[in-house]
Amino acid sequence: MNANGKAAGRVGFDIDGIYRPALFIPGQAPRLIHTGGPGEATGINARVEVVGWYREGSVTQAFHWRHEPPRPLPSLGGGHSEATGINNRSEIVGFSEAAPGAAHAVLWWGEKLIDLGTWGGYGARATAINERGDIVGFREVVVDGVGVRQGVRWICGKAPRLMPRLPGYESVVPTAVNEHGDVAGYMYPALDFLFGRVAFIYADNRYTLMPLSSNQPTAGLGINNRREVVGFKFDQGADPRNRALMWFNAGKTAFSLDGRPEVLAAGWKALEQGNAINEGSVIVGTGFFGLPNGRHSIEAFMLIPRK
Fold this sequence. Notes:
This protein is mainly beta.
């Protein structure tokens, strides 16, 4: 989502497996981005440039869109590529495979593809970029015979550095970075991705973990400059299992976005996850909207704070 409340995502159709990237503008029908195959938009900037990926044959192809048609982004030639974020300088990050299964973190700028490499792992992916060009992502390595993901933080003008790992958490996955370089994401033990996840903020060179008193797994997906974070908790006894959360007070206070009277009154069965939050504390995400006869559909939502 950008500062003006426009969001990027995807729209599904009644035919199984058919979905396309889309631009969402409040009060308007979603605008389809006409890719050659199924795909998803994963980033948007203030100029309403959209990035993401679509399926082309057996591989995924990163794209950039501002005017039709979407522009395929250059790749390293090994197979899959995906764009994951874009800033207001039109710098785009993501990954591209140099060989099948060998993902490299990459930066696109204009017509240029810059290979950021694997950051010392057997694979790497860049997940987000901020306005000054700070990049976050992760590398993939094998530790004691187990594959783990180690967070990488690349402050513009400096060398990329591994993010610290806390005892008991071998994998660190950054998902978002704000304009101050604060990072949100989640970490988990090497062998317990599903139930061991815990959301975090990394700021001032230290972690703030964001568990719940119920010990349900959590994940952070978006962060703004006030260190407000959105994401979800995983409730194995619920349907759907993900339930949207927001953290404020620099991660010290969790606030459930799901099950609130105004949400239920609007017809939602459940808000599944918060994906992004902007400087106005506007939140976008996905949820399950109630339909007649007890059915539901997966829909995008936008929560706007009361003034």
